[in-house]
Amino acid sequence: MKKYALLFAAFGFLSVALGAFAAHGLKSRLTEKYLAIFHTGVEYQFYHVLALGLVLVLSQGAVTGALKLAALFFSLGIVIFSGSLYALALTEIGLLGAVTPFGGLCFLVGWGCIFAHALKWSQ
Question: Does the pTM exceed 0.70?
């Protein structure tokens, strides 16, 4: 789980930095539509940085396969979902939006893993 602690810190740092970059550096360069797309990427990245933090806290009790998978899928989701939205906003290549749902699916699988861990833990 140590590598996910590093990702937690890196993804958290990047969500703040990218949010500030969008607000100050991209505001005059992107249309309102693409600025909103970029913002959505930052927003979901930050939410799932917090989810990754939850996994790290839960793993202090015992590291389970479900928690390892949750950390993996939250990390993949950040890269695929948010990354594709950043690329779409910056390049305006609409085809990149087709990748985004795969990142969303990764987020859902991560939350499913948290649910599976919670079910096992509550018994």
Answer: yes
**Domain hosting residue 30, numbered range:** 2-121
Taking the C-alpha atoms of residue 120 and residue 66, their distance in angstroms, rounded to an integer, is 10
Contact 55, 4 (CB under 8 A): yes
Q: Which residues of 42-68 are buried (b: 16+ CB within 10 A; e: fewer)?
A: bebbbbbbebbbebbebbeeeebebbb
Phi and psi based region of residue 92 (left: phi greater than 0; alpha: psi -120 to 50; beta: remaining): left
pLDDT per position in the chain (123 positions), as tens?
788 999 999 999 999 999 999 999 998 999 999 999 999 999 999 999 999 999 999 999 888 999 999 999 999 999 999 999 999 999 999 999 999 999 999 999 999 999 999 998 877
The SS3 assignment for 44 reads: helix
The total number of structural domains in the chain stands at 1
